[in-house]
Each structure stands twice: as C-alpha cells, then as structure tokens.
Amino acid sequence: xxxxxxxxxxxxxxxxxxxxxxxxxxxxxxxxxxxxxxxxxxxxxxxxxxxxxxxxxxxxxxxxxxxxxxxxxxxxxxxxxxxxxxxxxxxxxxxxxxxxxxxxxxxxxxxxxxxxxxxxxxxxxxxxxxxxxxxxxxxxxxxxxxxxxxxxxxxxxxxxxxxxxxxxxxxxxxxxxxxxxxxxxxxxxxxxxxxxxxxxxxxxxxxxxxxxxxxxxxxxxxxxxxxxxxxxxxxxxxxxxxxxxxxxxxxxxxxxxxxxxxxxxxxxxxxxxxxxxxxxxxxxxxxxxxxxxxxxxxxxxxxxxxxxxxxxxxxxxxxxxxxxxxxxxxxxxxxxxxx
Length: 339
Known about the structure:
Order of helices and strands: EEHEEEHEHEEHHHHHHH
CATH architecture of the largest domain: Up-down Bundle
Shape: flat
Largest sheet: 4 strands, mixed
CATH class of the largest domain: Mainly Alpha
Mean pLDDT: 88
Helix content: 55-70%
C-alpha cells in the first residue's frame, strides 16, 4: 500500500459521514464485514484507525539468566524502557542468590514493577503502574527537587552545617535515576499508543523533548551527587568562602534552575532565555576562576578538591543551559501555526 492517499468523504443515511478503507489494508489485516476497528484521536487532531480492539495488548519478555554470565540488569532495564508489562526471569536450574539480588536492585531502581510469582526456576515481574497515570511533569519536578536538595545541602555543609545533611546521597541518586527511567518508559508508551499520548497531554515532539530533559536532569544529578560526595569527604580541608568562586555560583545556579522548572508551566520565554544567559555567564566566571586557581600556593589535596568542586558546579550550570534550550525548543513547537 502507498504511504498516503486521498479519499472523498461520503454521506449515508442523510447525516452520517463515511470514508472507505483501503482494500489492501483490509485484506492484510484479514478484516471482514462486521469486524470492529479502533479509532483514536491523536493530540495533533488526526485520527488513527487500527485493528486493536478493547484494552491495549499486554507485552511480555522472557530472559534466560542461566545463559548470561553478566548483564542481566541491563537487559531488564531495556525491557522496562521498551514498555514490557511482564518480565520473566527463567533458568533450567534454581535461580542463584546473585541473580535474586540483581532483581531486587532492579525493583529498587524502577517504579511500578513488582514480583508477581517467585518460584525456584522462574521469577515473574509485572508492571502495576499505568504509563498514563503520572504526568511527565511530576517526575521532572521530583528530579529537580532531588538535585536542588543535593546541591543546596552541599552548600550548607561547606557553610558549617553538619555532614549528616549528606548521609543519604546514594538513595537520592537512585531516586533521580529511577525517575529518568520512568519518564523514558512513559515516552515510549506515548509514541506507541495515542491513548497514552493524549492522557499525558503531549505530542510526539514534546514527548521526545521530555525524554531529553530527563537525560539532562539525570546528568545534572550525577554532578550534584559528585559534588555532595566531594563535600562530605573533604569538608574539613576545603577553605572556600561563600563569596568565593565556585561557592557563590551555587545559589545562582539554584535560582536559575528554579526559574527554568517554574517556567515549564508558566511558559515565559523571556524568563527562560534570561536564565539561560545568566547561567552561561556563571560558567564564564567559573572558568576564569579555574585559570587562576592553579597559580596560587595551596596544599595539593585542598587544591584538587576545590578544583573538582568547581568542575562539578560548572557542569551543573552547563546542563542547566541545555535544559533551557530544550524548554525553548518545546515552547517554539507549541507556537507553530498552520499557514
């Protein structure tokens, strides 16, 4: 069948508008008189006709862990991102404790997946979360809160607060990664199912941009985590003052990121662009300070720690600039009009 063709609308019964379906498509799908087809309205306003009827088809995948020396978690993550509703881990002999530990780690690092059946030679994991139940913005906002918390707590510890503020770095990092995976799973579902796309209130372009935003925020989370570890492990040897670079850049970064997240909803383009420019200027200031950093006489351990902190803050700002660019892309797409 050709990629596209045009057909005339017809009126039957005086008021019902009908259009005929391509004969080749009907034959390929083995449709007959009386069969039911599904009609879904896309977010673009177009209609999609398919042979799917009723509830969406469930998908499953089976992974034989006995044939894998390693990489089970990677395969499970791949299945999760692809939208698998059921993941079965099987083996011809009893599943080892190591594999069971990897499965527990997978469940901890994802959202909405639970063990339905746990047998000696098979573990079946099912999804309990409908991909359209949670708006994409909710996960983006949660990632932002976790990243801001890590950065601001690190700043507070350098200002004299207790290291206890950073006792749960690993847990916060896992939560950031889990939200990124959830967003990518939802985006994959939206691209495959117009009903999910419609309920999430996104089109294909904005869905893909949300996936890109999630990846940018995850990388931001990596550097926020690195910053937190550096501060927790070196807080006594670091002698930076709040008004010194790169510390004075941290509140500026936090304000810029807050501006960007807030304007995902208010959609003020001038504010987003202003935040992008401000973050770019902060990067230049940090780079200038790094050039001077190596000219001073400081203990090597302290110098190295301070440079690593500076690098993390600079990269946080750079990823925030990427975030701003993605938001501008989305807002420009929303303003497109037919001519």
